[in-house]
Structures are given as structure tokens and as C-alpha cells.
Amino acid sequence: IWLHDYHSAHGSAVGYNGQNQNEVRKSETWILAFEPGEENPFGEITIHSGSLAVEIKFVNHTTADPQYPSTEAPTEPRTINDTPIYFHDQLLGIGGFGEVHKVIRIRDGKVLAAKTFIPPANDKKTTKLGEKPA
Ligand SMILES: Nc1ncnc2c1ncn2[C@@H]1O[C@H](COP(=O)(O)OP(=O)(O)OP(=O)(O)O)[C@@H](O)[C@H]1O
User: Fold this and answer.
1) Whole-model pTM?
2) ipTM for the whole complex
3) What is the CA(48)–ligand 1 centre distance, in A?
4) Which of 27, 86, 109, 134 supports an S-S bond with 31, CB 3.0-4.6 Å?
């Protein structure tokens, strides 16, 4: 299930359990649910479009009839300078320079691993001119 914002004047934002709810986009696509039978990783979904806010609650897809085809994922969108929105799912591991999370790219539902860099603490002592280090 996908939400497409084709024509809104002020853009839309979709919150996934509170994540990304301030990421307002025009001409964007958001995944709302995977195919029937797939577990919903997103939690509560809220849609904000103009002054209208919509909350969608999904039925249990594990009981859906598999004979009905699900919608195709949209093709990769188009704008050059835009920043994709990611839903951060569980922590996969911690490396030397940051944390790796399982993420879902919202506009096409692709599951990816994303590393968030955490700069190491700077333990080099700086001294002001004229002072001596202890
Ligand atoms: N694509 C992935 N799929 C699943 N788990 C991953 C993936 N990439 C990283 N991880 C997990 O995250 C941990 C940290 O990954 P990372 O790439 O940061 O490791 P690293 O090379 O040891 O760290 P660094 O490059 O920061 O020194 C890995 O040990 C692994 O458990």
C-alpha cells in the first residue's frame, strides 16, 4: 500500500511511530504496508497533509486472501536533490565508527542497512597559548 502526493500545495508528511513526521515532501511516495502476510514494521502511521491529519489502522494481513495481487512498488523517483526518508528498524550492530540499523527506504520499501557515524571523542587536550599542560 502506497501513498503518493501528486498535487498538494504544501506537501505531506508521514510519521512512522513518530519517526519522520516532520519530513514534509511534495511529489513523494511513502510505503504504508508491505504485501499481505508481511509483518508491519512501522507501528502507528500518521499522515499529515495540509491541515488534515489522517491515521490509518491496518487489518491483520496474515488473514488476507493471497489470490488478490498486491500493488507493485513504484519506480525510483525523479528529483535530483531530494533526500530519501528512512524508517529506522532494529539495531543490527555497532562498529568502530558508528551504529548499523536495519532501515526501510520509505519511497520504495527497500530494506537496507544504514550506518550512522558517531565521531570519536576528541581526547587530545588543547591548551591556550601561554598555558602549560598539567
Ligand atoms: N549489511 C548488514 N547487514 C546486517 N548486519 C550488518 C550489516 N552491516 C553491518 N552489520 C552489523 O553491524 C556491525 C557493525 O558494522 P560496521 O560496518 O560498522 O562494522 P565495522 O567494520 O567493524 O565498523 P567500522 O567500519 O565502523 O570500523 C557488524 O558487525 C554487523 O553485525
Assistant:
1) 0.63
2) 0.88
3) 35
4) 109
